[in-house]
TrEMBL record:
This is SGNH hydrolase. The lineage of its organism: Bacteria, Bacillati, Actinomycetota, Actinomycetes, Micrococcales. InterPro entries: GDSL_Rv0518-like (IPR053140), SGNH_hydro (IPR013830), SGNH_hydro_sf (IPR036514). Transmembrane segments: none annotated. CDD domains: SGNH_hydrolase_like_1. Residues 9-182 form the SGNH hydrolase-type esterase domain. Signal peptide: none annotated. Pfam families: Lipase_GDSL_2. It comes from Arthrobacter pityocampae. GO terms for molecular function: hydrolase activity. Keywords: Hydrolase.
């Protein structure tokens, strides 16, 4: 099938859809990008969609492995979020990192694609990831400068205060939940000025924990999620090492194909 409009999503676990678990979808995840594509197809059947994002990828990997592959698909729209995994490393040269990002975004724009970028989330509410808040603020200023230079659209994750509610986060406290991905899809479509029929979820009220209960919950989280995450980084491995892109060629996301 020939698609006159072509949406290609690039990035890491955020764009792959980790946290929005769906065993019927490739790699077992759906995610906000699939949800955006579903709405685009619903409004206009000429849209094709590819998602090249893979969890755990760092900036250089995304630029080296995904940009050329995206350009080969002749995209009219690209969303890209890269660099979050770099900011979590013990050392990072943000200026060097973002210089490469600038080049990659420039290549996508020069090919005629509209580009959507994301600022990083304000993790000040996390005892662990809040320590990267200063780095993320510098990263965000770079993203805004790159967007200005290349006339890209920004989804300002830093300013989306709704995401401070833990109901929008998966149990691993690192990735958005189904509700979070649903909300993000709506915010991306709004940034694109595209119509959508996404019903925003009502969050379940979580029972308040006393101090002992919170300490137990934090200890369980550390055992089940934080320790394995740190261990992978110490070993130089990633949860995405054995994964391929979920939608490497233009087509329709699983749920749009089912409903078509």
């Amino acid at each position: 099938m020939t698609y006159t409009q072509r949406y290609v999503a690039l990035g890491d676990s955020f764009t792959e859809g980790v946290g929005d678990w769906d065993p019927a979808s490739p790699n077992g995840v759906r995610g906000w990008a699939d949800r955006v594509a579903e709405q685009l197809v619903l409004a206009d059947g000429s849209w094709g969609y590819a998602n090249l994002a893979i969890r755990g990828k760092k900036m250089r990997q995304i630029l080296d492995e995904q940009v050329d592959a995206a350009l080969a698909l002749e995209p009219t729209l690209v969303t890209v979020y890269a660099g979050a995994n770099d900011l979590l490393r013990p050392r990072v040269d943000i200026d060097l990192l973002m210089s490469g990002y600038d080049d990659g975004v420039g290549r996508l724009r020069a090919a005629g694609a509209a580009v959507v970028l994301f600022t990083g989330f304000d993790a000040s509410g996390s005892a662990v990831f809040g320590k990267t808040r200063g780095r993320t603020a510098v990263y965000n200023e770079w993203v805004r400068e790159i967007a200005d230079r290349h006339e890209a659209t920004i989804v300002d994750y830093w300013r989306l205060r709704e995401f401070r509610d833990w109901g929008y986060w998966d149990v691993d406290r690192m990735h958005m939940s189904v509700a979070g991905h649903t909300l993000m899809a709506a915010r991306v479509l709004e940034a694109l000025k595209a119509s959508h029929r996404i019903d925003l979820p009502e969050l379940e009220t979580r029972p308040a924990l006393n101090r002992v209960g919170q300490l137990r919950a934090d200890a369980q989280w550390a055992r089940e999620y934080l320790t394995p995450w740190v261990g992978r980084r110490l070993r130089g491995v990633s949860s995405g090492d054995d994964l391929a892109p979920k939608y490497p060629a233009l087509g329709r996301p699983h749920r749009a194909s089912v409903s078509a």
